[in-house]
């Protein structure tokens, strides 16, 4: 396996914007990834298993689940840019593992920054330690990107709510025990009363909850599952956020997630390209290294060029979000272009190294399998283009010249 030391130059644009403390956090995460994540995730992929749960436990012990939580609760109070860089360090070795850990970390941040005092008292310490694991539960069998079509209901009862319905494609759904569930609130007196989010504690022995693993080809480390609730009780104080703000907050979270995914895609493609260039520099054919053949060299040069373009777009979108801007169009553009570039680029790398790329002596087949899922999460390419298209007049229209 090729070492990934020396990758700092590719990430220099974001690294330069981090505080010294944040740079130290990234360096610590980078070291952990080389020591623990690199070999174990590849071995797990080869065995058709998810990454070892011990990685999650050690990640939590280092405090990384609380990356953006306040220091008063054991967090680092880090920026959005630092969050992206940690995810990229993991994505160099496994996109799916990075997506999984990033998803869990986001749930800690959500409760730490927007949870009520009662919710923080009940759940925050457990989330920081990794005893409690959260995840957004938005998608349903008949409601994917169209969150307005969701069918999960929350029926008012004494001192709480009874949630009924099914959420699907829940990242880490096989292990989470505190998902944030989006549902239609049903008031017993007035009928439907808007959309709300609920922190739903799932007891392993609860008869009101059924989990079903979603088996995928190459995506075991996402630990995706379907979660079905049957009149599952949630106390009043577990309703998350201000009344009627749940839908808006969910859409804002998806917008930020698009930039997370785009950033992880560029890191994974960088990893694939680095491994491919190293192999093609050592492997000879017809008396010279593979990279000495002009046709192959040009193919990899095209990958490198598009990778840099994708990275520049990711950095631009990330900076806007870090500064508190919505950046809806930029987030959509960054995800669409980065995902397409990464999937195409890894395929190019696979063709350049030949059949050895399909074996576990390299990481390319793992990258190829895991990156495919980036095309479906947080908005498909078609949906993202539609989002960009709807904003064309606002973003690109100028007064006619002449």
UniProtKB/TrEMBL annotation:
GO MF annotation list: acyl-CoA dehydrogenase activity; flavin adenine dinucleotide binding
Boundaries of every Acyl-CoA oxidase/dehydrogenase middle domain copy: 137-229
GO biological process: butyrate catabolic process; fatty acid beta-oxidation using acyl-CoA dehydrogenase
Entry keywords, A to Z: FAD, Flavoprotein
Residues annotated as domain Acyl-CoA dehydrogenase/oxidase N-terminal: 19-131
Coiled-coil residue spans: none
Co-factor requirement: FAD
Domain Acyl-CoA dehydrogenase/oxidase C-terminal positions: 247-392
Cross-referenced Pfam families: Acyl-CoA_dh_1, Acyl-CoA_dh_M, Acyl-CoA_dh_N
Family (UniProt): Belongs to the acyl-CoA dehydrogenase family.
Matching PANTHER family: ACYL-COA DEHYDROGENASE, ISOVALERYL-COA DEHYDROGENASE, MITOCHONDRIAL-RELATED
Protein's UniProt name: Acyl-CoA/acyl-ACP dehydrogenase
Classification lineage: Bacteria, Pseudomonadati, Pseudomonadota, Betaproteobacteria, Burkholderiales
